[in-house]
Amino acid sequence: MTCRQYGAMMQQKEKNKQHPVYRLFTTRTNTIRKHHQRGKISDELREEALYVAECFRDKALMDNDYAATGYAQDMEQEHVYAEARKRLE
Question: With a threshold of 0.90, does the pTM exceed it?
Answer without folding.
Answer: no
